[in-house]
Amino acid sequence: MSASDGSPNSSQCHPVDGRHRPMPYTVGTLGAQSAPLTAIAESPLLAALPLAEQARLCPELEVISLALGDVVYESGEHLEYVYFPTSCVASLVYTTASGVTAEMGLVGNEGVVGIAIFMGGKTVPNRAVVLIAGGALRMKASVARREFERGGPFQHVLLHYTQAFFTQISQTAVCSRLHFVEQRLCRWILLCHDRLQSDELQMTQESISHMLSARRQSVTVAAGHLQDAGLIQYARGHIKILDRAGLEKAVCECYHVVKTECDRLMGFRGACI
Ligand SMILES: [Zn+2]
Questions:
Q1: How confident is the model over 159-174, as a mean pLDDT?
Q2: How far does residue 253's CA lie from ligand 1's centre (Å)?
Q3: Is 270 part of a structural domain of the chain?
């Protein structure tokens, strides 16, 4: 099977309209354990840590809110924080010199944004943009690095997540190269749905085409097919999931490959990808 379109060279994508904003505001209290402890429960990755470890890390975590389009980090800049989404979803994207943007992976509450900090690289050539507004916990880079180097459960879950995320990125590359836009759209909807508390997604058509590295017209046609099949309701970027099981049958193998691997590595949540 080959993709009908959507190769990076043929896409008509443009840079995501992300931009620097003032630092996200803190809605929790720095150093107060009660609010972060509650928030930790919303991050399966952190909640997987032993309670004593959670309590120890609490003072190092800030509860923040991120808005749609916030740039979590910019390409090439030194990362100041590691982010653990609790209800927001971030998209890692790369923009070529010619201005074409493609998504590399999605991070929701199963994961962490800022892998380069604890892996030692400090910067990355891609950017992270908030795709779905919501909450997150953040930890200073210096603290995250220190905690990672302590070893133990924190290092363990971060390494396992990193391997799972590598699988997601690798499979995204395979999917973009080999599978039809309709299948890729199914995969992307399922990825988002796994990270949301809702059956509805609000996204501009342009954003969806960026994420899929596909032309807007192709996305519209693919969404129309999924709608005709009764799997979703679609109108101008508003997607309502009507038949999750049907989407799982229609999606390409990439979704299941990554889900299986992530469940194996993380094991704390069935929907983790
Ligand atoms: Zn695929």
A1: 93
A2: 6
A3: no
